[in-house]
From TrEMBL:
Biological process according to GO: Golgi organization; intra-Golgi vesicle-mediated transport; intracellular protein transport
Protein's UniProt name: Uncharacterized protein
Matching InterPro entries: COG3_C, COG_su3
Species of origin: Schistosoma margrebowiei
Composition bias, Polar residues: 28-41
Chain spans, region Disordered: 1-46
Membrane-traversing stretches: none
Chain intervals with Basic and acidic residues compositional bias: 9-18
Pfam families in UniProt: COG3_C
Residues forming coiled coils: none
Top-level taxon: Eukaryota
Gene Ontology cellular component annotations, sorted alphabetically: cis-Golgi network; Golgi transport complex; membrane
Length: 341
């Protein structure tokens, strides 16, 4: 029977990307904490970043640079409680500005450009927050006026009847005596940053897997739905003839090779538009400029792609004869893995 790509162990590994990136950042931050002071903030890139041009402070997004400079100055002249509240709000607004900038870049350039821009600056911001040595968490109290809304609805339903009776059914009296509920809220900008980083990493991996496998994912879902019916034969379906599957497999493998820099633009340009497939390795290196972080993301993308190819190969092996398998020419898992070397 074919392997369901949605339930494979490799699929579950895709969601570990942000935890591994955060864990790597945490280990480097623990070393940095013993060496750094607040004055280091303006001159020292973190150990999780290289000295490539992408890491120079002049290349940081303006709101990130201004936020860190502002915090470094406020930290010298405010007490801890006052600084904590301002720092939490500054970091929260900075994260929001990065998300908006990422969306704009995705519209003007490509989706992967916007996502890698956001990941890069979230890692920078996360690492540069450490020298302050505080929790970016504040507690606020807000008032919930929803009880007034419910009582006001009761007044409207009574429509003047019994509004002056002195009993618990008097909606007007309940409205006058009602009090709002006090709700305590914890605002943690560090948690907001980590959540946004995790979400962006997972979204990047998912979209890259879909892009670099082409129509394979949709074909597998459609094939599995057909095979769920008793006695169904995949080879009898018009969308599953060997020639059509060959085209799907060929285009997906060619897109993967182009994205990994293993194919020139002169190879069979009739079926794949090369300008729509950016070089994945180059994009990761340009934005992240850190081999460890690049490898973490690349491994998760590789895991998702291999899972799709494994399911496709198993499907072809189980439901097509030798002649059809030769026509389809589906590469094995080891052959696809070799593309990443």
């Amino acid at each position: 029977m074919p392997i369901d790509s949605n339930n494979s162990p490799d699929k579950e590994k895709e969601h570990e990307n942000s935890e591994e990136i955060v864990a790597e950042s945490d280990s480097s931050e623990s070393n940095l904490q013993n060496k750094s002071t607040t004055s280091d903030l303006a001159i020292q890139p973190g150990p999780n970043m290289s000295l490539a041009p992408a890491d120079l402070h002049g290349m940081w997004y303006p709101t990130v640079r201004r936020t860190l400079v502002c915090l470094s100055k406020l930290n010298r002249c405010l007490d801890a409680d006052s600084f904590r509240g301002l720092a939490q709000e500054c970091v929260s607004m900075c994260v929001q500005s990065l998300v908006k900038a990422s969306d704009s870049i995705s519209l003007r350039r490509t989706t992967i450009d916007g996502q890698l821009f956001l990941i890069k600056h979230l890692l920078i911001l996360r690492e540069q927050m450490l020298p302050f040595g505080i929790e970016f968490l504040v507690k606020e109290t807000s008032l919930d006026f929803s009880p007034y809304k419910n009582v006001a609805r009761s007044i409207w339903e009574q429509k003047g009847t019994g509004l002056f009776s002195l009993n618990k059914e008097n909606a007007l009296l309940r409205f006058l005596l009602e009090t709002p509920n006090a709700i305590d809220i914890e605002l943690d900008s560090r948690r907001q940053l980590d959540s946004q980083l995790k979400y962006t990493c997972e979204l990047l991996i998912e979209q890259q897997v879909l892009q670099l496998t082409g129509e394979m994912s949709n074909f597998l879902k459609r094939a599995h739905s057909i095979l769920a019916a008793p006695g169904a034969r995949l080879a009898d379906q018009p969308f599953a003839n060997p020639s059509y599957i060959k085209e799907i497999v060929s285009n997906a493998h060619r897109s993967l090779c182009i994205a990994l820099g293993r194919s020139s633009s002169s190879n069979r340009p009739d079926t794949v538009k090369h300008h729509t497939v950016p070089n994945l390795r180059n994009c990761l290196h340009i934005y992240l400029a850190n081999p460890d972080t690049e490898n973490i993301l690349l491994r998760r993308i590789q895991s998702g792609i291999i899972s799709q190819w494994r399911s496709m190969y198993q499907l072809v092996t189980d439901h097509y004869n030798d002649e059809d398998r030769i026509i389809i020419g589906c590469p094995t898992e080891s052959q696809v893995n070799h593309s990443f070397i």
